[in-house]
Write a sequence for this structure.
């Protein structure tokens, strides 16, 4: 990894760090932090990275690509992307407070899973929908104190409203499931 201190200062950040990741030549994830206390890691396209997890330790938000579902791990390896479970493991190793999964393959169904800290084992664990009946549930359950949500094209979220995302994503996932059921019944 390499720091970009001068650039960080120009942007008003306390940290701007690039971490080399495996995807294409010179691919890098980034970690940003602000003097007011917020912090963010963004994986970009990549295979899972222990270096990213270590460098991003304790970030508030980890945005990680999850192009493939776990049952397509061989595709993820050959195309140098991550599965949902791999992305969640990186976020768990980083102890990220909130994980946003993104960059889903358009060839496969929509949302993966949502999870809020109140969805712990006593509350029934993760809500898994649409992509696979076993969709990264183990990895989500392992990150018991984390919030996990799925991004979608055009999604924008204000930092101060991150805590509202699990409830919203639960509704979005329910909409996808209802839409898929409608299509099955009505063609």
């Amino acid at each position: 990894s390499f720091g970009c201190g001068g650039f960080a200062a120009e942007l008003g950040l306390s940290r701007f760090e690039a971490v080399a990741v495996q995807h294409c030549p010179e691919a890098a994830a980034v970690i940003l932090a602000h003097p007011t206390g917020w912090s963010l890691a963004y994986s970009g396209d990549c295979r899972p990275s222990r270096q990213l997890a270590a460098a991003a330790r304790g970030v508030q938000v980890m945005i990680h690509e999850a192009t493939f579902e776990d049952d397509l791990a061989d595709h993820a390896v050959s195309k140098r992307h991550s599965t949902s479970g791999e992305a969640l493991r990186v976020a768990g190793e980083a102890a990220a407070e909130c994980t946003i999964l993104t960059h889903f393959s358009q060839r496969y169904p929509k949302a993966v899973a949502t999870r809020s800290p109140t969805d712990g084992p006593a509350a029934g664990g993760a809500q898994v929908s649409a992509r696979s009946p076993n969709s990264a549930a183990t990895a989500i359950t392992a990150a018991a104190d984390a919030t996990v949500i799925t991004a979608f094209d055009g999604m924008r979220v204000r930092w101060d409203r991150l805590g509202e995302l699990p409830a919203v994503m639960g509704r979005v996932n329910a909409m996808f499931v209802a839409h898929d059921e409608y299509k099955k019944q009505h063609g």
